[in-house]
Structure formats: structure tokens, C-alpha cells
Design a protein that fits this description.
Two copies of one chain form a homodimer. Chain A is built from twelve helices and twelve strands. Chain A is of the alpha/beta class. The interface between A and B is large, with 61 and 61 residues. The complex binds 3-isopropylmalic acid (2 copies). One 3-isopropylmalic acid sits at the interface of chains B and A. Chains A, B: Belongs to the isocitrate and isopropylmalate dehydrogenases family. LeuB type 1 subfamily. Chains A, B: It is found in: Cytoplasm.
Chain lengths: 347, 347
């Protein structure tokens, strides 16, 4: 089984190195690795954030372990050359449409959230975000109005097939958890949302065991602060999912702990921490590698069919925390390698 | 000066009645009132959520004091007949483009937030949201894809004139406050946001005394949880502003306390509480009227040029709270009229 390793920018290489150590320690037979350039690092080396060689590795791989992209040096490049295009391009080229972002508080870290402890402790939710459509991938550009004014535009849309696919992901995830699915849209304003809501309701007929509710996105943003414990699975579109999943992860408090998976129809997946490239602390050994280690765990579970090895990783991370492993973002002083050591010791 | 009173649905009539009592107690000379039907109430009475008679009152008025719209009975109506169209229609017809939503914790209520007290207490921000453009008002509809699939679409766009106008509002508000403006967009993905960012930067040349920063909307949703005290004024588009302003108001904790204003070029304005019509408690005297009372205060300040009377209302609300006035949403037992009494006693 081939794993593509795409470290990317900023702290990416440091955190990927620790995840690789943990994978190596599991001594799983038949795993091979290929590294590829993505993001600002790829642009600087070969002039494009997602070079053809990288895309080729990605296509051949069973799974991609991704660090982070984002580099202030690239801020003034044209859009198609910016680091973010690596992640958008991979999602589109490989049909990675189902982005899963679990948010759950580690008991040891319940104090880290800006939310009151009793509110934060109740968080155990999964956001299922569509990542192949919506206003992200519609026609877009700059044009002139009839009066000669500059105008930027982006077309938002979803078709029934796209919604049906992600709705099934949401219902199936809810079925495997606590049986509650909340679909988030803005159907009181957007036709895209109206189609979304109609199709989610159609699909719900196949899941009589799942309790479906609908919420407007503005209300969802409120409820995620007021009482995040009310949610089990949230399914939503690309744009709203971008906002709500980042909000939810911050409610958990320790953004350095949160992993994500983005899957396509054949369970090929891209796995990455939800935090970014953190250029301000890059190369200083301050980055917390645990979100990337946990992403490697999700990879073993979802794309490589190795749930027991995934369990081992998750247990080792929990044990390392219980043993007091704390990087600076968790209020401690351990460096990136020491955090990796702590997980290895707990394995 | 003519004030249009549009109570609307649910708790709307109850809370507007208390705001009216407070306005009457100020005995301001020359104020006249006309009532109009909006929302589900208007649909049920005359078949449209924003009847021509109501629009006519609105056009003639110096300011509109608005309760709330939203009625579950109307959920399955066609979009153009739903209660929300009253507010969208008024914003568009009167050119009400500048929606101001201050969020600040009342010291007496700092415990009410789901955020830790020290995080919530630091909140003192103003969201300036554009409300005449964006994906709200672009062409939208249902169509078929070439493969015959149903597809919903909505065109997102801003032109430079729209952005320039709201940017000036943001800079001026920042200048009158702590001099910090954060413009929120998604320029790494959206051309609409790229134009937004370009124009905000152009306008900033006229405000060298204001410190401008830019933030992606996903990061803004995180920062509003992590450290909302970092913000002074946030300026953003219609869609992102909808989400972030509701999130910010919930960070404050007591959503029954938050007022808003939406102004046009001639300072005609619509004033409303940010909470909704709360059909579940309508007619029971449980609604907190203070957000509407404070909205009346904003109306005196922004549209009627009566800042001293506005100060009196704000001081009376603060005093009523200090005296222990608490409706159920604030953990107390006072009914809607008693809350109004408490403000009148403090005036
Ligand atoms: C980098 C950016 C384009 C991306 C997105 O908006 O999808 C990121 O914020 C994410 O959520 O993965
Ligand atoms: C009712 C709805 C159309 C409206 C909006 O989305 O603008 C509301 O949520 C608001 O924020 O005033």
C-alpha cells in the first residue's frame, strides 16, 4: 500500500516527520511511502503549488498524509499559483468530496477551551463537509458592470447528485454514532440551499433510524457556541462547512489536536491536521504533531482498513496526554520531537 | 418625525409595545407613529409578507422600528411569500445597506455566556455588515444540468461601488471607536472576496489613522471564539456577516439584549433586535424586550439625531439590570411588561 507524504509549508515537514515515526513504529507490513512537493514549497522549487509529479504520486497512492500549506511569501501571487491551490486541486482532481472533521474534547484538555468547561466537555460531534462543489468550484472571475464598475463574481451551485452523495455520508456517519444528523443550509435565502434541503429530505427516507433536523447556518453558528453538545453529526456544503468546522474546532480549544479526512468514492483519502502551516513558529520545534499523528490514525482506519492499528495510535495519544505530554499550544514546554517520543513511548 | 412600527410575528408585538412605552415616556416632541403589517402576520392578513401599504409607510418614515418576522405556518410557502422576504425586501427597496451590530457584554450579565467569563467580558465589538448585495441578491434559481439533474444556483457578486460604500462605514465606525478595522473575506477562494479586499485596501488610503487588517472568514469564526476581545470593528459582506454577527452575539451570551441598525445613504434606518420571532414563547409574556428598547435607542441616535435621548435609554436599561431586572432568558422571572416597567422606573 502506497502512502503519499506531502509535508508542504511552515511546520508541515516537522509534524509529518513525527507522524512518520509513529507509523514506522507500528511496523505495518507492505507500507511504502513517496514524498511530494506541495504548496509554497512546491512553487518555490518548481513554479507550481501542485506540480504534475505530485499529482501523479497522489493518483497512485492509497492515501495521502498531508502537512499544511500556506506561505506569506506567496500572498501576492496570482490565485492559481497560491499554496492553497494544492489542497483545492487535490480535492478536485481525486474527487475527494467528503471531508470528515471530528471535534471532541480530550478530558485532560477540557480547560483549554475559551468555552466554559461544562460546555466544552460536552462536545462530541462530527462535521461532514462537501468539498467538491459549491461556490468554491463554480465559474468565477472579474468583470465590468454596465456602468463600467469592477465586479467580482462566483457562482454557487449544487446539483442533486452532489448533495445525494454527501447526504449519504452524513446519514451513514450518524448511524454509526448517536443517530442524529443536522443538515445546515440557508434555505430561507439561497436556491442552492433549497435544493440541498429537498435532496437531504429525499435521502432521509432510506435512513428511518436517523433523526434528521435542519438548521440555518446563522443559527448553527450560534448553537455551536451556546450548546455544542447538542450536535452529533452535522452535514453541510463546502462554504458553510469551512466556517463551521473551524469554529467547532476552536470550541474544543486545542486546535493542535484535531485531525481530518477527505474521502472519495473509492475510500482513497487525504489526511491532514485541521490547523494551518503556522509560519510564525516554523522550524523552531514548537509545533504540536498530535493532530497529524491522529490524522495518520484516521488514514489507517478509513483508507487502509486497519482499524486496530488506528485504535493503537489513538490510545497512544490519549496515554501520552495522560502522562503529561504538553507542547506549548497545550500550555507545556515539550518540543515537536519530544511529543513524538511521548507517543512512541506510549505505543 | 415619522416612525414606522412593524411588530411582525411571534413575540414581535409584545416587545414593540414595550419599546413604544419607553419612547412615549421620553415625551419627545414631534414624533408620530404609523403601524404596518409585515411577515407572516401580513401574509395571513393580506396575502403578502411586505404589502404595498407597509412599503409606503416605510418610504415615508424617518425610521422603522421592527419587531421580528418568522412563522412556522409559512415554512412551505414559495420563497417570495415567506416572512423573511419582509426584511430582505425592506433592505433592498430602501437601500438599507449598512447593518450595524454592536456586541458588548453588560457587566451584570457576564456569566450568561457559554464563554469563560474573562473571555466574554472582553467583548466590545461592532460588526458592520453589507446588506444590499452578495449572494443574497444575485440571480438565483433552479435549473437542469446537461445530464438532466436538478441544480440550485445563486450568483455571488460585489462591485467596487458597493464595497467602497460599506468600507467607508467600517472605517468611520472604527475611527469613532478604538481605531481598528478587520475586514473579513475568503479571498483565497472567491473572486468576489478578492475584489472586496482590493477595494477595502484602496479606501484605507483615506483613513491612515485606522489600523486595517484582513482575515479569512474561517479564521474569523475561530478567533471570535478564541479571543473575541481582539476585535474592534469587523466589516464584511452580507453572507459572512449573517453568520459572524449571530456567532458574536451568542458569544455575548444574552441574545435578548442585542440591538441592530440598518442604514441607507440618507440615514434612514431600520432598527430591530437581533433575536428572532421566537414562536415557541409568543403571547406568553416571556420575551425580553430590552433588545428592542435598545434598538429604539439606536434609532434616536442614528436616524433622529437625538443622542441625548439615546443615552437616556441606554442608561435606563443598564440601571434596570443593575437593579436586578431579569426576564427568563436572563435567568429571572420578570415578564415582558415588568421588564418594560423596570426601564420606565429607571428612566
Ligand atoms: C486553504 C483553504 C482553501 C481551505 C478551504 O477553504 O477549504 C481550508 O480553509 C480548509 O478548510 O481546508
Ligand atoms: C431572516 C434572514 C433572511 C436574515 C438574513 O439572513 O439576513 C436574518 O438572518 C438576519 O440576519 O437579519
Amino acid at each position: 500500500m502506497l502512502i503519499a507524504l506531502f509535508p508542504g509549508d511552515g511546520i508541515g515537514p516537522e509534524i509529518i516527520a513525527q507522524a512518520r515515526r509513529v507509523l514506522d513504529a507500528l511496523a505495518i507490513e507492505g507500507l511504502t511511502y513517496e514524498e511530494g512537493l506541495v504548496g509554497g514549497a512546491a512553487y518555490k522549487a518548481v513554479g507550481h503549488p501542485l506540480p504534475p509529479e505530485t499529482l501523479d504520486i497522489a493518483r497512485r497512492a492509497d492515501a495521502i498524509l498531508f502537512g499544511a500549506v500556506g506561505d506569506p511569501d506567496c500572498d501576492s501571487l496570482e490565485r492559481h499559483l497560491r499554496p492553497e491551490q494544492a489542497i483545492l486541486g487535490l480535492r478536485k482532481a481525486l474527487g475527494l468530496f467528503s471531508n470528515l472533521r471530528p471535534a471532541k474534547v480530550f478530558p485532560e484538555l477540557a480547560d483549554a477551551s475559551a468555552l466554559k468547561k461544562e460546555v466544552a466537555s460536552a462536545i462530541d460531534l462530527l462535521i461532514v463537509r462537501e468539498t467538491n462543489g459549491d461556490v468554491y468550484f463554480g465559474e468565477k472571475g472579474m468583470r465590468k458592470t454596465p456602468d463600467g464598475l469592477r465586479e467580482g463574481y462566483d457562482i454557487m451551485s449544487y446539483n442533486e447528485e452532489q448533495v445525494r452523495k454527501i447526504a449519504h455520508q452524513g446519514f451513514q456517519a450518524a448511524r454509526a454514532r448517536r443517530g442524529k444528523l443536522c443538515s445546515v443550509d440557508k434555505a430561507n435565502v439561497l436556491e442552492t440551499s433549497q435544493l440541498w434541503r429537498d435532496v437531504v429530505i429525499e435521502v432521509s427516507a432510506e435512513y428511518p433510524d436517523v433523526a434528521l433536523s435542519h438548521m440555518y447556518v446563522d443559527n448553527a453558528a450560534m448553537q455551536l457556541v451556546r450548546d455544542p453538545g447538542q450536535f452529533d453529526v452535522i452535514v453541510t456544503g463546502n462554504m458553510f462547512g469551512d466556517i463551521l468546522s473551524d469554529q467547532a474546532s476552536m470550541c474544543v480549544g486545542s486546535i493542535g489536536m484535531l485531525a481530518s479526512a477527505t474521502l472519495n468514492d473509492s475510500n482513497q483519502g487525504l489526511y491532514e491536521p485541521i490547523h494551518g502551516s503556522a509560519p510564525d513558529i516554523a522550524g523552531q520545534g514548537k509545533a504540536n504533531p498530535l493532530a497529524t499523528v491522529l490524522s495518520a490514525g484516521m488514514m489507517l482506519r478509513y483508507s487502509l482498513g486497519l482499524p486496530e492499528q488506528a485504535d493503537r495510535i489513538e490510545a497512544a495519544v490519549a496515554k501520552a496526554l495522560a502522562n503529561g505530554a504538553r507542547s506549548p499550544d497545550l500550555g507545556g514546554t515539550m518540543n515537536t520531537v519530544e511529543m513524538g517520543d511521548a507517543v512512541l513511548a506510549a505505543l
